């Protein structure tokens, strides 16, 4: 992997996005971490800079295209053209389908699907100009196997998978690959919140149902991102790459 390629990671302040940001930064890439959590962004980006990494952190709500465009202008000016995008920011919540209001549905679509649209569309001009680019979206096993009480989440993530596949075809001739990673169970603050709320089983319980009997880690997902972003993965596009300990095999 050419280490000076500029990487954008949304949801970079926590969990999977933080692990992906740390991996790319430690490999020598300039990394832009975007998130709505100011304090965590500040803390985590400062820690990486202490290690000598080049990191830019911006408070960006991925539902707001103007905020994305403004942050991307800063990234281009301070780091250079965007080459790799990891559209990871997302929320999860458990609500019985019959209790999902129109506003709850819309918020889920806005963050988990339109947020990916905004994040990716705004970066593609740099990649087409360069004739090289890597787009990685983070979807979910919920869209592959279904998820009771998370229909709105599964629908949004299914949209991410469809968007990924469509973009893979549309931009293949531009040297841009577009792939998605649908995690199953990853030990992150999101998973911890679900466990605390009683809507997600404790990790030791769910691990018994995973062929490789442990939860995934942000580093597991980051390792797959490293591969998908590499020159060696130039013939891999439109794929749904399960990094899930075998929990979903399809
Ligand atoms: N942890 C899992 O088991 C799991 C499983 C399947 C899919 N995923 C997906 O992985 C991705 C990362 O999840 P995680 O487990 O690291 O969760 P997390 O809550 O630890 O991190 C998500 C980050 O996204 C940020 N974010 C939320 N809304 C945002 C917005 N509107 N704009 C910008 N940033 C926003 C949050 O502030 C947070 O820092 C999500 O898309 C999630 O749906 C996670």
Secondary-structure element series: EHEHEHEHHEHHEHHH
- Enter the CATH topology name: Rossmann fold
Count of DSSP strands: 6
Helix content: 40-55%
Quickly count the helices.
Answer: 10
| Strand ordering within the main sheet | 3-2-1-4-5-6
Provide an overview of this structure.
The chain is α/β, with parallel strands linked by helices and 250 residues long. The chain has a single domain (6-185, 217-233), classed as 3-Layer(aba) Sandwich (Rossmann fold), CATH 3.40.50.720. Helix content is 46%, strand content 13%. The chain has 10 helices and 6 strands, in the order E-H-E-H-E-H-E-H-H-E-H-H-E-H-H-H. The protein has helices at 15-26, 38-50, 65-78, 102-121, 124-130, 142-145, 151-171, 189-196, 203-207, 218-228; strands at residues 6-10, 31-35, 55-59, 82-87, 133-138, 176-181. Strands 3-2-1-4-5-6 form a 6-stranded parallel sheet, sandwiched between helices. The longest helix has 21 residues, at 151-171. It is globular, with a radius of gyration of 17 Å. The structure holds nicotinamide-adenine-dinucleotide. Residues 10-11, 13-17, 35-37, 60-63, 88-92, 111, 115, 138, 140, 183, 185-186, 188-191 line the site of nicotinamide-adenine-dinucleotide.
In short:
The protein is an alpha/beta fold. It is 46% helix and 13% strand.
């Amino acid at each position: 992997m050419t280490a000076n390629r500029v990487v954008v990671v949304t949801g970079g302040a926590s969990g999977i996005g933080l692990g992906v940001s740390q991996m790319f930064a430690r490999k020598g890439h300039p990394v832009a971490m975007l998130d709505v959590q100011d304090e965590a962004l500040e803390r985590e980006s400062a820690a990486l800079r202490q290690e000598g990494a080049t990191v830019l952190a911006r408070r960006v709500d991925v539902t707001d295209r103007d905020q994305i465009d403004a942050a991307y202008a800063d990234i281009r000016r301070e780091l250079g053209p965007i080459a790799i995008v990891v559209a990871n920011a997302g929320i999860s919540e458990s609500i019985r389908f019959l209790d999902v209001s129109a506003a709850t549905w819309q918020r889920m679509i806005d963050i988990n699907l339109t947020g990916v649209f905004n994040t990716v569309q705004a970066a593609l001009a740099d990649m087409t100009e360069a004739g090289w680019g890597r787009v990685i979206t983070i979807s979910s096993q919920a869209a592959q196997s279904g998820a009771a009480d998370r229909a709105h989440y599964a629908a949004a993530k299914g949209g991410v998978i469809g968007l990924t596949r469509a973009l893979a075809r549309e931009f293949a001739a531009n040297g841009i690959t577009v792939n998605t990673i649908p995690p199953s169970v990853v030990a992150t603050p999101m998973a911890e919140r679900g466990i605390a709320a009683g809507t997600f089983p404790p990790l030791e319980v769910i691990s018994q149902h995973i062929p490789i009997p442990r939860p995934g880690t942000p580093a597991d997902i980051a390792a797959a991102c490293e591969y998908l972003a590499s020159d060696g993965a130039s013939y891999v596009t439109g794929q749904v790459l399960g990094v899930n300990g075998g929990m979903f095999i399809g």
